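A note on notation is needed here, since sequence and fold are reported together in a single record. The reader may check this reading against the record printed directly beneath this paragraph.
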Amino acid sequence: MQIKVQLGKLDLRLPVQDLISEHVAKGSIHILCVYPEHTYALSHLPSIHRDPFDRLIIATAIVEKAALISADSLIQQYPVQVIW
C-alpha cells in the first residue's frame, strides 16, 4: 500500500500507518508474517503475474485462505478471493 501511495496509484483517507492501525484495532484486518509455507507455495503458482512481491502476496493469501484487496486484474486470475 505504501509503495502504491508513493507512486500515486492509490489515494487513502489517512496515512498508511494510521489506516492499518485503525483496521487492526477494529479487527477488520490481521497482520501476517511471511512463513516458509508461503514461499513454498510460490512453486505451485502459474506464471501469470511477473511481480515477485505480488506473487508472494498471492501465495500467502492462498495458504492462509485469505482474501486480497486489489484492483490488479492479473491477481484475479489466481485461485484467491479478490475484493475491490
